[in-house]
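Q: Could you predict the 3D structure of Mediator complex subunit 23?
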Amino acid sequence: MFYLQAETTVINQGTQLLSPSADPTYVVTYINHSFAQHREYLCAGAWILMHGHPENINCTNLGRVLREFSPEEVTANIYTMVDVLLHHIHLELQRGHPLQDLMLKACGNLSVFIWNHELLPPDILLLALIDRDDDPHALRIVINILDSKELQQRVKLYLINRGPPEHWLSSGPFKRVELQKALGNYLSWKERYPTFFDDIAARLLPIIPLIIYRLLENDAMDAADRVLQVYSTFLHFYPLNFMFVRDILAYFYGHLPGKLILRILNILDIKKIPFSESFPQHINSSNAAMCPPLDYFATLLLGVVNHVIPSLNNSSKCAAMGDFANNSSRPPHGKIQATSQPGPTNSSEGQKPYYQMQDPGTLTQLTLETAVIELLSLPVSPSQIVSSLVQIVVHIQPTLVQSSNGLHGAPGSSGQGSILPTSPSGGSTDSLGATRTTPSVSGMNTSNFVSRSGYTCQQLSCLLIQACGLLLAQLPSEFHVQLYVEAARIIKESWWLTDPKRSVGELESAVSYALLDPTWAAQDNTSTAIGNIVALLHAFFGNLPQEWLEGTHLIIKHLRPVTSVAVLRIAFRIMGPLLPRLANAHTLFSKTLSLLLNILVDVFGRNSQQPAPIEATEITDLIDFLHHVIHYEGQGGPVQASSKPRSEILALFGRAAENLRPDVQHLLSHLNTDANSSIYAATHPKIVQNP
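A: Sure. Here are the predicted structure tokens for Mediator complex subunit 23:
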């Protein structure tokens, strides 16, 4: 009943205010005496009263009233009017009127409101329409407004008056267009002038990207392509256009046709963006299925090393490590006497103030995000991109060493030549005699990589692994899944894990060596595929937000079933460093810990079948790690003398222990909530759960 009365009141007030012969003095009466909930429907009432003909209402009175409304009231009016407009179209369709005629009439009437009388700000109207994109007609009206000659003429005038997009670099004061002319009657009379987008065309700059998002969400690819074609030059002035391009390529990755990707890239002024030299060739390639060569990906990684990864000279810790490597008794391979200091060759550019590079704010951000945009634009699958990057990382040390040897001659004292072993000796004479070798990556020319970086081979190989992890962490989840699959494949296919001739002790020794810091392996040229892939995963994890870390479990799922202590150690080495980071995310910590306990059961379960018996004492260090990490999680930080694990975690250990061999159960007996069987629980009665 209230709504009927309110509707009647709105129509009566609107008739008195907006009829062509309305008394001008009623404007003051309406402003002073109308209720706020009624004023919200003023524009909607005007739309109904004009019956499709704008001349049926008094636009002068409507404009005078809207001038007295606050910006919030104007916005509420526009949103309500859009609802009424769309509902009216549906009613007319039910009465048999053609849709095309209804759309033309609606768009024509809106044009009168927007351009002829300047009653409604087009930016708010467009926002209201795209917020109603659940209605099939809303986006069609949006496209019609963007196609209007009036709007495009405004945009052309803006481009002429504004000058180049980098106007902030111009010397002298900026000459602004007179406010009334720039803003029109929509906002120039408001007390709160817009301080940023001070032109009616400029106020569309943050709106058009939202419109493109909505069009893509509704699978209107052709319409989005047309909008980008018309407004790409205009969007050069959008302060966040780089972020927009990156985000839209990431959010809709895998759903955008190649032609549309090129349109999106044109939003950027490509000549001013540090894209790879061969990038245009790869995105315009007629053979879309052909993946770019490894040289292309290696150059991307080198750019990240030189301009994104902090220089070793800027970190005393890293510098000390580099000095130690150079002075170590282990002779470094391929040390280059570069004329420049190790690190980025143009590090000073990384300190440019934000106003000289508005989006992104620094050269560091620009380089990293340009690399991200390149990878997201390539017309190849995520698996091909990830496979190429991983292939570079896995064999990076032998590749750099061989290229360095080719430039500077064979190393004098290493005695290993230019081919590196795929597994370390680990103190085993059998492995020392192994004849398998790791060739450099085919199709990759790194002859000038070391000299271009200013680092030694050892330093550069480690930094390239870091760069690859950082770059992959910026990409959508499709790439993460492929990384997990590829990492598991490389580990499972490692010949020295699958070779039946290797003894358990030899594998144990080799794995322990392989999982050391790859910096050491780089120094004496005993790098391994597994060591590099684990280092890559750690660099990748370190740059992921916590909410994405649950996906890391996929690696272990692809490694299972685990049948050897060697692979068990690899799994612990991959996932172990994540556990302290998850100390305050109890659910994810429990899931990750449960996964590690499950693979422990795979190897040491009551029913596990091992070709040779494995002593429980082989994993006492892993048990010590589990003991420490659950105390860390219980404390929520570094372990103290009073630290206690949570009872839920101890219960998790209890359930896992039921499936373990008795000798392994004994190692976990102190991590049990049963006070009768657990020394630990008996001495900490507060954590014992009540039956």
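Q: Anything worth pointing out?
A: The chain has a mean pLDDT of 78.
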